[in-house]
Design brief:
heterotrimer; A mainly alpha (308); B alpha/beta (318); C mainly alpha (284); A: 308 residues; mainly alpha; 14 helices; B: 318 residues; alpha/beta; 8-stranded mixed beta sheet; 4-stranded antiparallel beta sheet; 34% helix
Chain lengths: 308, 318, 284
């Protein structure tokens, strides 16, 4: 198992290389002189030269990448042009809020999605199943920022149950979590339902019934356990998607976070900050995929064996 | 009689693949239920286990008397307490019969915990003992293994141990060795017979192999397209089979000293249950068929104590 | 048997009511998007200070926005923007995906391995993240959105085409064509691609729905259509400030997005069902 984890982590290195290269090249692909992207408009020529020397813009692209990479590895992402503060500090300041939202939304997606999937599978072909299924279709087609706006309108403005925006206290987390996680709920529910039904048809389930195991036990202790394997790998992939949703939802709710930071930076053409945010978000996606893979392997004894 | 099934009819909606099954078995006896695939033997087993509802079928007629109690129409919760406790099931394919994610020992323990109320240590001891009874070597080590780490024969032994864990009175073995290697088949069958005799169980052995029937069973019931066509003690059936289908089945067993080329199969195919021929459903494949066989379904008639047969021609040549 | 096969040649749509309704909705939407300026009751950019933020009424079916512009007219013209951006982007994506996928699938080898590694990499990233990266390079605006969406979905179509081509390559009639001395180019474009096309087109239909959401999201962030050009996303973006006084400015474009995406999904699913039917008929 530990060698499997190690192998999986080693496989990240090329991925990280490609991602970091892409993010690095951003500045060079933007039309115009990269220095313009790194500085405020109208800076003095002396300052420009100083900047060029600092970022090594006078050297070859390859050397520049090495220098940049070296800095990134020591968590030096440069300085925000607009805010004039180190990008790393800005990220550190916004990360906890993003993690809270992302983590809670992830939990919400998993638990609500699995519960909905189990119910839909249990009542397969009945009205309960079809209403869950249509809910799933609806949930996966609504843009999360629009859902966020609707939730604000209904629960914060009309009903006044929760604060409109900001990040103070747990009550302000409820709506963002629903808006971020609903798409995930739909996906997890669909995968759970399909695999529960498929596994429910296998021979060993008949034999469990023949043993006199109760139906609820068969569902929750045996079938669900199998059904969770594909669900977990989907969830691992979904960590990235939840982050994507969190980006938009943060903006709508005016919550601090990597998403708000990134969108603001994009609108202000604050490229060092854009690079830093994109790199962090990408790393989170990659990490999520790995965690999903490892959790899946850990659950299934056959895979555990194969990955020893 | 521990179990007597009377005129059992199984239906899926309005379609009835099993029409008229009457069989019985007592403690210490083995009843062979024989027929080609599609004859309705496995469905009969499913009905005896009370599991028809899970495949969207139901008992449409007849009774299943088990220890004096009619199992048809028994509430599911009541039936569940009988399953595994008083009736054990052994299924055909050991490769898919065990939960791949749970250690095999735990799977044996499960039935003992549910039905015998055993706790951790006692359940463990029970599982290890059962594994020894089904001739699994090194049972303490095997207890901790997962199904994919065992051979097919070993898995089937685990399935048998599982079926025995609730100390049932009746075992239903649905083609228990079909999926296994020939050498393992013989061992498993021998082991099953021994368990039945020692524990005084009743067993219904579902098979299509007349050779296995001859070696193990006390009584035989032959099924063809949803009906019992002949029922007899093993001795009298192999001495003088009454139904042409039974005769043909016995003719299919290879024997020592047979000249090459003399082994015969049965011409034609099992009719689809959805489109049965008129009259006796065996008549298109029967070498002795008369006009009456095309027209009327033969009734099941008893000849003496040990032989019953559903054939228009039975008794005419004696 | 022959009747089944000949019937299946025509794409037989299952006669399900939701599929028909959804199909009609899409036709209606496309027609009104094409005719947008002619059928819109007002000019999309006609400001009218006297009717700012007015609730839906007979004069303005969907109400007016902060500048007194008619929301219905802007929805209709916005449909033009949103649909053309999504369809163009997905179109680019499908074409490039078909070429890359069939080259990878047909020739295999090193090119396949390198391309697929990159494709698999983008596969695990959410489209919004990829799109934001690309918008960072290309800059805000509709052309940026088209490029971003096109590249965000490229992985999906390349993969799908590649899988299809690899499967088809194994079929007997391709061997026959090879034995007859057909060139790679001929086999690829005359035999393999036409057969790989159907599933790719259905996937394209579903992707168009996702692309509409992605376009709306980018538009909402102010990274898509720039004012005064209306797009559904941009409308919601400018409506945020009026959320408490004129919620319809946001609710209505959102409904337009959701309904369109749901309709595309229903029609796409129906197409998948009828394609399945065709495949079965071919196997039988």
């Amino acid at each position: 198992m530990s060698s499997f984890i190690l192998r999986r982590l080693l496989a990240v290195i090329p991925t990280f290389f490609v991602v970091s290269l892409t993010v690095f090249l951003l500045i060079h692909l933007v039309p115009g002189d990269p220095i313009d992207s790194l500085m405020r408009a109208g800076s003095s020529p002396a300052l420009r030269e100083q900047m060029a020397a600092k970022y090594g813009l006078d050297r070859s692209l390859f050397e520049q990448y090495i220098i940049w990479m070296g800095k990134v590895l020591t968590l030096d992402f440069g300085t925000s042009i607009i805010q004039g503060r180190p990008v790393a500090a800005l990220i550190a300041q916004n990360l906890p809020s993003s993690l809270t939202l992302g983590g809670t939304a992830f939990l919400f997606s998993s638990l609500a999605g699995i519960a909905a999937g189990v119910l839909a599978a249990k009542y397969y072909g009945t009205r309960i199943d079809s209403s869950i299924t249509s809910g799933i279709l609806l949930g996966s087609t609504i843009p999360s920022f629009w859902l966020a706006l609707l939730l604000i309108l209904v629960f914060a403005v009309w009903l006044g149950w929760v604060p409109v925006s900001g990040a103070r206290g747990w009550s302000s987390l409820v709506l963002p979590v629903i808006a971020t996680g609903l798409g995930g709920v739909a996906l997890v529910a669909r995968v759970t339902k399909v695999s529960m039904i498929e596994i429910g048809r296998q021979d060993f389930v008949t034999l469990l019934r023949a043993k006199g195991v109760s139906e609820s036990r068969i569902r929750l202790q045996h079938i669900l356990r199998h059904a969770l394997v594909p669900v977990i790998s989907i969830l691992g992939l979904r960590i990235g998607w939840i982050l994507g949703g969190a980006i938009t939802v943060e903006v709508v709710f005016a919550r601090p976070g990597l998403g708000s930071l990134l969108i603001r930076a994009l609108n202000q053409r604050d490229y060092p900050l854009v690079q830093g945010c994109l790199l962090m978000l990408s790393m989170a996606v990659i990490l999520g995929t790995i965690i999903g893979d490892i959790a899946q392997a850990a659950m299934d004894p056959r895979q555990r064996e194969a990955s020893k | 009689m521990l179990l007597s099934v009377e005129k059992l009819r199984i239906a899926f909606g309005s379609f009835a693949p099993v029409k008229d099954v009457t069989i019985s078995v007592d403690r210490g006896e083995i009843l062979g239920l024989v027929g080609e695939s599609g004859s309705g033997k496995s469905l009969t087993a499913t009905a005896l286990m009370g599991l028809l509802g899970y495949v969207n079928g139901h008992v449409a007629g007849g009774r299943i008397l088990f220890d004096g109690e009619d199992l048809t129409g028994l509430p599911e919760e009541h039936m569940r307490r009988l399953r595994g406790r008083r009736i054990g099931l052994i299924t055909q394919n050991p490769m898919t019969s065990l939960d791949p994610m749970i250690r095999v020992g735990k799977q044996i323990e499960q039935a003992a915990r549910i039905h015998m109320g055993l706790d951790g240590k006692a359940a463990y001891r029970k599982a290890v003992d059962l594994m020894r009874d089904v001739r699994i070597p090194d049972s303490q080590r095997v207890h901790t293994l997962y199904p994919h780490q065992l051979s097919g024969g070993m898995k089937q032994r685990i399935v048998i141990a599982m079926a025995l864990a609730g100390e049932p009175d009746l075992l239903i073995a649905d083609e228990p060795t079909t999926a296994l290697d020939a050498t393992v088949q013989a061992q498993i069958i021998r082991n099953l017979v021994e368990l039945v005799k020692i524990r005084g169980l009743a067993m219904i052995l579902i098979t299509h192999d007349m050779g296995v029937v001859a070696q193990t069973c006390d009584h035989v019931a032959v099924m063809y397209s949803g009906r019992i066509v002949e029922r007899a003690s093993v001795g009298s059936m192999f001495a003088e089979a009454a139904h042409p289908y039974t005769q043909a089945l016995i003719g299919c067993i290879p024997r020592n000293g047979m000249r090459p080329g003399t082994l015969v199969g049965i011409p034609g195919m099992v009719p689809s249950t959805a489109a049965l021929p008129s009259g006796c459903s065996f008549h298109p494949r029967c070498s002795k068929a008369h006009t009456i066989c095309h027209e009327c379904v033969p009734e099941f008639r008893q000849f003496g104590r040990h032989v019953g047969v559903a054939c228009h021609l039975a008794g005419q040549y004696e | 048997m022959t009747t089944i096969v000949s019937e299946s040649r025509r794409l037989r749509l299952p006669v399900s009511v939701p599929a028909v309704v959804a199909g009609l909705f899409i036709v209606l939407l496309v027609v009104s998007a094409v005719l947008a300026p002619t059928i819109a009751p007002y000019a999309y950019d006609a400001q009218n200070i006297e009717v700012m933020n007015e609730a839906p009424s007979f004069a303005h079916f969907f109400g007016t926005d902060e500048f007194g512009r008619d929301v219905l007219s802007r929805i209709i013209v916005g449909a033009q923007t949103s649909l053309s951006v999504s369809v163009t982007a997905v179109g680019f994506s499908v074409l490039t995906g078909l070429v890359l996928g069939s080259v990878c699938g047909y020739f295999g080898g090193l090119v396949d391995r390198i391309l697929m590694t990159v494709i698999d990499l983008t596969w695990s990233f959410p489209e919004i993240l990829i799109a934001l990266m690309l918008v960072a390079v290309v800059g805000a605006g509709l052309h940026g959105v088209i490029i971003a969406v096109a590249i965000a979905y490229l992985a999906q179509f390349t993969r799908l085409t590649r899988t299809q081509v690899i499967q088809l390559k194994k079929e007997a009639y391709i061997d026959a064509a090879v034995n007859l001395g057909a060139s790679d180019f001929h086999i690829l474009f005359r035999h393999l691609l036409p057969n790989a096309l159907a599933p790719v087109l259905v996937a394209a239909m579903l992707a168009t729905g996702d692309a509409i959401i992605l376009e709306a999201t980018l538009g909402f962030f102010g990274l898509g259509a720039q004012p005064p050009t209306p797009s559904w996303g941009a409308m919601m973006s400018s409506g945020t400030a009026q959320l408490f006084v004129a919620p319809w400015v946001i609710i209505i474009p959102g409904c337009a997005v959701a309904l369109t995406v749901i309709a595309l999904n229903i029609v796409g699913d129906a197409l998948i069902d009828s394609l399945d039917f065709r495949n079965k008929a071919r196997e039988g």
